[in-house]
């Protein structure tokens, strides 16, 4: 059945069961955009005025898979509140701010941050993620969580933590799929790490939560998901999640939104790329004239990589927030037991220049109308590994493997077969499209609809890594 479903084209494509081989070089795009046209552009790099001899450089942005040309949103108009805020910071500092600080403000500013006050997911939003593609994704993550729970000795109480849960779709599908396994669901306390009030409300709805009165000896209320009768709590940061219980931590498309510092090789050495205000009051990139605090993290990343790998690069991205979060996760797993699953687009090595902005499924200029587009960067999986291993000798790191290998080994082929047994024609089309997007590679061979909506497989674009307490052994399917 599955063979008939997916191999309707004259050319047979490899599927998840065959374990796709990753491309020799990582793609330069995240999967979130929906369109599929291709072009490239060059953004000129501006240098600080006190270095007239500084050689010019360019930043290349790959627009493959995206509509062209990018639509700039700015008409002649007054600055937005976020733009005024950013310019105020630069003016107060008396100089430019780092790309990381710019990124953090754009995404999580309490009043105008991209994620803070609206739903940015799905076809009607700015990008689509794997849980929005098919229920099978959350179900397979649930299979992984239950497998690790069994390896942990089936603890009676456990924290199930999701970082950056989006709409709550992944957790909802996980709990719904696991609801028949009472011993597992009764052990759980779900913790959603989410700083956006708007997304917290969507997650509350997705998990079908109800607020119950607390016990007689306490005035506190508790929130319970009716999907599996599991208590649910929300936290702004991971550090706020209570410790003391073994934890399974899920980070799907979370690391890519952590702020990155960008460095460019110049005649005087590595210089951090900064955001400044030009004479025409528009934002521009400049290079720092002096070493910055983030240079310490650059030195650490270069040490991990080795001179040969760094010598080939003119740009390097480092993410101190990723290093520090990974260390916190590793410390928690080492002390309390459990494991973490990281799923994201990225590469197993130094990331050179990947920061991108996406608005309504299209690439746009990173500095255009800040707060109206998603900013994200490739995840440096090698840095995650080094950070975890440096934090604790009690944890082991596994992977990365491709998303196709991960989902295929956990049984997504069998799951799609079961779902196809009783489905409508419309559901049939949705299932095969969703299956291809999750585990396929490139354009789907069976598509007969509009070219701009052809399903694009992300089976090899996304990588999966696990961090677990060594006493639990090797997690499936690594």
Automatic annotation (TrEMBL):
The yes or no answer to whether the keyword Mitochondrion is present is: yes
Record bears the keyword Mitochondrion: yes
The record's principal subcellular location, in a coarse class, is: mitochondrion
Q: Keyword set for this entry? A: Methyltransferase, Mitochondrion, Transferase, Transit peptide
Q: What's the Enzyme Commission number for this chain? A: 2.1.1.320
What Pfam families would the database entry show?
Methyltransf_28
What would you give as a GO molecular function for this chain, any one?
Answer: protein-arginine omega-N symmetric methyltransferase activity
Catalytic reaction annotation: L-arginyl-[protein] + 2 S-adenosyl-L-methionine = N(omega),N(omega)'-dimethyl-L-arginyl-[protein] + 2 S-adenosyl-L-homocysteine + 2 H(+)
GO CC terms, sorted: mitochondrion
Write out the ranges of the annotated region (Disordered).
16-55
Q: Where in the cell is it found?
A: Mitochondrion
Which ranges are annotated Low complexity under compositional bias?
Answer: 27-40
Q: Name one GO biological process term.
A: mitochondrial respiratory chain complex I assembly
By sequence similarity, the record places it as follows: Belongs to the NDUFAF7 family.
Q: What is the protein's known function? A: Arginine methyltransferase involved in the assembly or stability of mitochondrial NADH:ubiquinone oxidoreductase complex (complex I). Acts by mediating symmetric dimethylation of 'Arg-118' of NDUFS2 after it assembles into the complex I, stabilizing the early intermediate complex.
The name this protein goes by in its record: Protein arginine methyltransferase NDUFAF7
């Amino acid at each position: 059945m599955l063979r008939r479903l997916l191999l309707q084209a004259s050319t047979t494509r490899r599927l998840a069961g065959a374990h796709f081989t990753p491309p020799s070089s990582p793609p330069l795009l995240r999967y979130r955009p929906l369109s599929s046209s291709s072009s490239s552009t060059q953004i000129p790099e501006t240098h600080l005025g006190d270095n007239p001899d500084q050689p010019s450089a360019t930043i290349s942005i790959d627009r493959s898979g995206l509509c062209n040309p990018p639509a700039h949103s700015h008409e002649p108009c007054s600055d937005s509140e976020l733009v005024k805020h950013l310019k105020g910071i630069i003016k107060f500092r008396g100089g430019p701010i780092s790309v990381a600080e710019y990124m953090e403000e754009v995404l999580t500013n309490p009043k105008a941050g991209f994620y803070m006050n609206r739903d940015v997911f799905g076809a009607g939003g700015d990008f689509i993620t794997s849980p929005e593609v098919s229920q099978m994704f959350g179900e397979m993550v649930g299979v992984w969580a239950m497998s690790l729970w069994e390896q942990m000795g089936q603890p009676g109480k456990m924290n199930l933590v999701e970082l950056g849960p989006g709409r709550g779709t992944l957790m909802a599908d996980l709990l719904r799929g696991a609801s028949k396994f009472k011993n597992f669901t009764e052990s759980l306390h779900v913790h959603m790490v989410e700083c956006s009030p708007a997304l917290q409300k969507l997650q509350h709805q997705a998990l079908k939560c109800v607020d119950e009165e607390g016990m007689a000896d306490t005035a506190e209320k508790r929130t319970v998901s009716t999907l599996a009768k599991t208590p649910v709590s929300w936290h702004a940061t991971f550090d706020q999640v209570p410790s003391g219980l073994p934890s399974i931590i899920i980070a799907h498309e979370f690391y890519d939104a952590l702020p990155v510092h960008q460095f460019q090789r110049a005649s005087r050495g590595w210089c951090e790329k900064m955001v400044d205000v030009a004479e025409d009051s528009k934002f521009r990139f400049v290079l720092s004239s002096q070493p910055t605090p983030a240079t310490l993290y650059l030195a650490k990343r270069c040490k991990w990589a080795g001179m040969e790998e760094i010598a080939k690069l003119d740009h390097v991205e480092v993410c101190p927030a990723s290093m520090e979060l990974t260390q916190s996760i590793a410390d928690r797993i080492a002390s309390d037991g459990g494991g973490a699953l990281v799923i994201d687009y990225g590469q197993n090595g130094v990331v050179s220049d990947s920061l991108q902005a996406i608005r309504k499924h299209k690439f746009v200029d990173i500095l255009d109308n800040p707060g109206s587009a998603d900013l994200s960067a490739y995840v440096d999986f090698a840095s995650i590994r080094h950070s975890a291993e440096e934090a604790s000798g009690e944890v082991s790191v596994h992977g990365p493997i491709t998303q196709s290998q991960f989902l295929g080994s956990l049984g997504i082929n069998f799951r799609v077969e079961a779902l196809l047994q009783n489905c409508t024609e419309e559901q049939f089309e949705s299932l095969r499209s969703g299956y291809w997007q999750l585990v396929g590679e490139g354009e789907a061979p069976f598509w007969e609809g509009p070219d701009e909506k052809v399903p694009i497989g992300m089976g090899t674009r996304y990588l999966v890594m696990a961090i677990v307490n060594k006493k639990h052994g090797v997690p499936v399917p690594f």
